[in-house]
Amino acid sequence: MFDVVVIGGGNAALCAALMARETGASVLLLEAAPRAWRGGNSQHTRNLRCMHDAPQDVLVEAYPEEEYWQDLLRVTGGLTDEALARLVIQASSHCRDWMRRHGVHFQPSLSGALHTARTNAFFMGGGKALVNAYYRSAERLGVQIRYDAAVDALELEDGRFVAVRLGEERIPARACVLAAGGFESNREWLREAWGQNDNGEWPADNFLIRGTRFNQGTLLKFMIDAGADTVGEPSQSHCVAIDARAPLYDGGICTRVDCVSLGIVLNRHAERFYDEGEDFWPKRYAIWGRLVARQPGQIGYSIIDAKAIGRFMPPVFPGVKADTLPELARRLGLDEAAFVRTVADYNAACRVGRFNHTVLDDCHTTGLTPAKTHWARPLDTPPFYGYALRPGITFTYLGLKVDAHAAVHFGGRPSPNLFVAGEMMAGNVLGQGYLAGIGMSIGTAFGRIAGTHAAQAARQGTHHEAA
């Protein structure tokens, strides 16, 4: 019998498996995906948001705990558990040495990744390199790994974990860590969560999935039906505006369109619908998927001119390009007169001061609804570019309620040997909104906590068996 079984194959699962193994436990990791697609959404990540009080290796200046907390408080609108959030923030300040010991390398902030040199540590080779490093380390340490191992159910007895079920196969263990992701790849569950809008549309039908197709939420649904305490609202998620031409699954980071704050965003009626200059992009980029999801047809259009080129990370697909605004409208399939009128109204409302995209500058609009509060400059320099946008779901926030030991709760009581990490519990920290890199911070912190406490629970279980 294994001491610890870890269900999942991404960052949180791997951190849990490594910590449990380092503590001396025998560990089995069950990854639903085939080996070639292992790693869940973590394979598409780039960085980890880190608290630090002074310059550290790849991080410049300082990013103290209170600033990190205030940033999180702002984007979540207060929908966060402060104690658990601060646990994540504090853990982010001292996890990188451990990560390095397991083969993860870091590099300075990427050129064009705005405002992250101070707050985010980037993985050399991205998330795929991180995942591969962790798998190599796990194999070297003796963690047993099975791929194509989608868990259907658990055996539970009064809140205690007994065994894993894979079809007809039963795998008992002394403790278990759940780290199998959310339900973002389950279209029916997304439809149920989002419902129909006033136009009779099912918004979820037009969502693209930025990450893995294997996050079906099977285990999450099982745990909810088994009476586990939950947290989060089903329609809340890390939802980003991505290129409408992106693939249905696994488009990853390169499909994100990062020029929103440098221009304007229109719906299919060629109307603006939100302040594009509200805040710095790493703090606000993840609101745009949800904003687009609320527009007719779940589509938007990011419009920029030549002045924006070179100021944002270019997406993998080039934008639609035109020498005149009417021509751009036609190429995007938007009403030409409405498009030109919207741009003209915006241009006339711009009050250009000292443009500086690295600060909250004084370039704004007046007399325009919605206003653009920063970085407002007329769209007047050809060529012009347009990017069609769709909502891109990264991961869902409905999850299992936890405590500081990462224990799953049933009726307010923590399980003695069942723990959860990563996207399956991220809603404890992220009730809504997102901060760049915090998903990896949550997965790393709670993966390590869950693995440590699972190993401890397994030792206690061994003692009970011996007695």
TrEMBL record:
Gene Ontology molecular functions:
oxidoreductase activity
Q: InterPro entries in the record, alphabetically?
A: CobZ, FAD-dep_OxRdtase_2_FAD-bd, FAD-oxidoreductase_2, FAD/NAD-bd_sf, Succ_DH/fumarate_Rdtase_cat_sf
Keywords (alphabetical) are: FAD, Flavoprotein, Oxidoreductase
The superkingdom listed in its UniProt entry is Bacteria
A Pfam cross-reference name: FAD_binding_2
Which coenzyme or cofactor does it need? Answer: FAD
Show where the FAD-dependent oxidoreductase 2 FAD-binding domain sits. 3-439
Question: Which protein are we looking at?
Answer: Precorrin 3B synthase CobZ
UniProt source species: Pseudogulbenkiania ferrooxidans 2002
